Amino acid sequence: MEHVSIAPLYSRGADRLSNPIERELVRRCQDGDKQAMDALMRQYQHWVYNIAFGMLGNPEDASDVAQDVFLWLWENIGQFQFRSRFSTWLYRIVTNRCLNVKDRNKRHHTEPMEILDSQPWVPVDTASPESAVLLAEQREILQRALAKLKEDYRRILILREMRNLSYDELSEVLGCSVGRVKSRLYEARKALRKLILT
Amino acid sequence: MMNHRRIQNQLSAYLDSELNPEERAVVEAHLSICDACAQMMGDFQQNRQWIAALEHEVPPIADRVLAQLPDRGPVRRQFFPSFDELRRWVFRPSTGAAAAAVTVCLIVAFIYFNPTRPPEDALDLYLTVHTEHVAYNPLRSNVTADSLGEDMKTPDTTAEDNTDFLLEVHLGD
Asked: CA B87, CA B97: separation in Å to the nearest integer?
């Protein structure tokens, strides 16, 4: 299994349409160029998968969602009109698809969120065995707390903390006002803190 | 000075650097004297780092999808917003507030500037109807609105004055 390193195509704070490479890739995808689609997928598969994993809690569903999203994208990329960042448009599709999967799971009475401790993590700090154990414990605590969090809270926290989306971008992805983003983030952080401390 | 509760509400925005310099200064001053808020801030920062580190190894999704992609020609580009985008635009709070404000303005304008609204004062109404009658009587085509003042002093007896009838029409029965 290969971990793909992602270099962001644009710097944060840059103009939303300032990335000519990404625009060109999207245009070529719209024209039916599979190589451009491949390039886009390799740019975004890491975050699409990790956002889906964060929201759904298991690798199979996350992988299925990521594949569904990219297949849907190939057929429907004509809907992207270059009025926003491609990434925010894509993240909105991913989060909506995750919500659909969760609804479907609820309807079929499957386990809503399963914590898989055997899932491999990207090593962040493995300087010593003690720190590795500590890190694993921290992640387990966090993952369990995230699993108990309200869906809206989990989604906004993952997008903000993992992808570092700005309030404007979050407002675009979640379809709510910046003020609502601000208050919801505070509520989400407070709820997560309470779950971790208890 | 902002109270403890309001400072707590600002901690999240402070963490995201979304406060202006004055607000930041107030929060920082409070954090230096309030252990509870400082503890909360520390927990927020720690949880942020934990979530940021929650990255999993990615399966070869791009390879799998690429193998399934059907050949296709150019897709039709949409130049107009999709239904979903329109729905999100219409139902955002700012659009609703703007629509409500415009509606109120239109209603107020209609009520106060409606040219067909009859004057409330009976004498005003009489004069208005009489003036309209004199000004627009086809038998008095030489009379203009500018000369109405002079004309009023020397009424034309050849034209039938049906002001009373028009007044009844204006009053709506």
From this structure: 15
- Partners of B52 on chain A (C-beta within 8 Å) are 161-162, 164
Q: Which of A112, A141, A165 is the last residue before a domain boundary?
A: A112
pLDDT digits (tens, 9 = 90+) for A95-113: 999 999 988 888 776 554 5
Q: Is A4 inside any structural domain?
A: no
Instruction: Please answer yes or no on whether B12 and A122 come within 8 Å at the CB atom.
Output: no
Which of A78, A112, A146 represents a domain boundary (last residue)? A112
Question: Taking CB atoms and an 8 Å cutoff, what residues of chain A touch B14?
Answer: none
CATH number at residue A105: 1.10.1740.10
- Say whether both A65 and A147 belong to one domain: no
Q: Do A142 and B74 touch (CB under 8 A)?
A: no
Q: Using the beta-carbon criterion (under 8 Å), do A41 and B61 form an inter-chain contact?
A: yes
- Could you tell me if A77 lies within 8 Å of chain B, comparing CB atoms? yes
Gap between the Cα atoms of A4 and B60, Å rounded: 9
Closest C-alpha among A86, A7, A72 to residue B65: A72
In this model, does residue A151 exceed pLDDT 70? yes
8 Å CB contact of B66 and A31: no
Considering just the CA atoms, what is the radius of gyration of chain A in Å?
18
Number of domains in chain A: 2
Contact: A78, B75; criterion CB under 8 Å: yes
ipTM (interface predicted TM): 0.76
- Give the tens place of pLDDT for each residue, A6-60: 334 433 434 455 588 888 999 999 999 999 999 999 999 999 999 999 898 889 9
Assess whether A78 and A144 both reside in one domain: no
Give the domain range for residue A100.
16-112
Does residue B160 sit in helix, strand or coil? coil
